[in-house]
Amino acid sequence: MALPRTLVIVLAGGAGSRLEPLTAHRAKPAVRFLGSHRLIDFPLSNARNAGLDDVWVVQQYHPMSLNDHVANGRPWDLDRTVGGMRVLRPFQGDVGEGWHAGTADALWRNRELIEDFGADAVLVVSADAVYRLDYAAVVDAHLAADAEVTMVTARHDGDVSRYGVVEADDDGRITGYAYKPEDPATDVVTTEVFVLAPDLLLRTLGRFAAEHDLADLGDDVLPHLVDRGTAREHRTTGYWQDVGTIAAYWRTNLAFLDEGAPFALDDPRWPIAGRPDRHTGARVTPTGEVSASVLCAGARVSGTVRRSVVGEGAVVEAGAEVMDSVLLDGVVVAAGARVRRAVVDEGARIGADAEVGGPAGDDDEAVGVVGTGCEVPAGDTVAPGARHPEPQEG
């Protein structure tokens, strides 16, 4: 029996406005995770580990922030003469030209390529969550059930009104779907992993494109397919976490610092691959003290680091203190500075004796942020939960 021909489409063009300022100069899928990886590494690794090697990456917002990392797909063994990775960017001069306005629009603009590929199933995934999933098993279940769409779902204990919310019967048939509802019916949400029948997908996209401008799949396409009665859920009980807000991003990074981390990124049975670093090993000097933390290649710690991520080439000078924080590549925390409960973006500098962040108080979402390449002057303070520099109005 021939294996199903599966096309994996990674939607990696999102602006990620709720992650600003981390996304001010990069696409959301290019944001670092745990210092050594980027968010796009998760879907690319899931595809390759599942043996699916026809992977298209749809770009839009700040594509250059992803290009160097994705390159030709080699870290995921997707650099093939036939098949492998294909990067799709907005273009002019033909059908489907221009910027896309959402996930459905992105697929419709690439309809000719999808049709020509001739897949048995199209797997559409986002690139803004941390998880492991056997995509091939989801495709197999989808085809075995003769479903028109299969939505991978998970229970979510946070604000589910930001997601597609699913109702399903005991047999896995989806009986209700609402996109970002004000009053969610359940706590079961889509993980933005969908398997779709290609012909029906393109016909449905064409129908709604003829009526109005397309945006996201959740607006028209998924509700329509649910109403047809052949939508199925594939419930994942493993770890899945969307990192679409600063607080969620910070929380998820720190969750992987504990001994009971959700999973190991370097598990040989299901590795989350990424582009190899180009630094020497991390170094802790005689004055340095580190506990429950991740130090990436090239990091140098002469101060105190507790339950934090120290990115590639980042420096924590003697007398500085970093706690419950995420420092991205090239950050410098100068002598005497304190960084607590914060995310500090690439190339930023925290001046001597400055203070960034602090206790959350009554607001668990209060996570301080210092933007890319910004400097907090010596002796200055960035209050808990504040942004530096402060966002400009208008």
What is the CATH domain class of the largest domain?
A: Alpha Beta
What is CATH's topology name of the largest domain?
Spore Coat Polysaccharide Biosynthesis Protein SpsA, Chain A
- Computed CA radius of gyration, to the nearest angstrom: 22 Å
Task: Give the quaternary arrangement of the chains.
Answer: single chain
By secondary-structure content and strand pairing, the structural class works out as: alpha/beta
In total, how many domains does the architecture comprise? 2
Number of helices: 8
Question: What is the helix fraction of residues, given as a range?
Answer: 10-25%
Mean pLDDT: 91
Spell out the CATH superfamily of the largest domain: Spore Coat Polysaccharide Biosynthesis Protein SpsA, Chain A
Total count of strands: 31
Q: Low-confidence stretches at least 5 residues in length (pLDDT < 50)?
A: none
Biggest sheet layout: 7 strands, mixed
What order do the strands of the largest sheet run in, or round the barrel if closed?
5-4-1-6-11-8-12
Q: How far apart lie the N and C ends? A: 59 Å
Binned strand content: 25-35%
| CATH architecture annotation of the largest domain | Alpha-Beta Complex
Rough shape? globular
